[in-house]
Amino acid sequence: MKSAAYNQLTAHSSQPICVFRSLYEKIKSSSSTFHSYQHPDVIECEERLYWRIYKFLLRFIAHSPRGNPVKVYSVQDGDDVLLVAPVRKFGRRKVKLFGDFNYVDVLLAEDKPAETLRAAFLKFLCCLADDGFDVLEWNCLDSASLSRRFLGEIFSGQKFTVERNVKIPLDIHETFSAYTASLSKSVRQNIRTAYNRLSRGGHVIKAGTFFRDELRNDSARKILAACDDIYVARQVSRYGFTSLRTRIGKRFFRYSAQIPEAEEGFCAFITVDDEVAAFMYGYDNRRIMSVEVPKLAINDKFKFYSPGLLLVNETVKILMEKGYRYLDLTHGDEKYKFDMGGIEYPTESAVIDLTPLRG
Asked: Taking the model in full, what pTM does it have?
């Protein structure tokens, strides 16, 4: 199983999260397929969020280990970085690949031969095993990725659980009118009804987007603050927080809403009479010309006007004008995603026994 290529590689284990950005800079030019979820801005934000929750929980856990459980593993061939993997420790024996819940993968230098990358991948797994971990939990792995292929080859009997995700393909339509025509008659009627209700009520609807650096300007920050308030209110209501739990919940959800401030951040929104009625935010992945949206919410005040439907419709129009290939609505198979032309794609999760690799 361990080739000559494997033996010349060097693995670095349990490095602090602060090294992730520098390793990312060294490897990012080796692949054109890295997801925005793998960008240091996203990983570091997720780590800060997790670390805040972890430190809070430590107050109530009697014999829990101190210190940040998020670490970075890497594999190199001389000065060449072949693999980078942030992980999160669970106790002494379990480790989980770290990242956003919509997409999780190691960073691989994909311009290197497949045999070399497979050796680096195996080196990483063996390093985890030799560090005393019995189990690796891996969620939201792209079914078509090299990592999924290598796991299948190394662990031939491994079982994977399939998760459903939805994205709207845009480049299969020549025009926005062609996209609209592809929707079912009932969906087109629902969209027209929503616009007509707004018009009859004398309301003014506007749609807008912010890409990347645009999120830093004052108008964007004002919109983002309104989006945050809507998102926090909906999540706190959804999970039924009260008293102390409400305060904790608000801090948690507002902190998670800081993700759009990442370098590749994206926000789309619609306003009704200058008040945010619905929004989505996520990441602008120009490597594959896709906008990846893990968060979408509506203002219940405007629920009668189907603001979520109008938001997706207006965002598709803007993205098509800019030449994007996908509006990726990510994890979950809610009906509206398919109504608006979405197609399903899988990610997979697995719990992997590392003990056969030890020694």
From this structure: 0.82
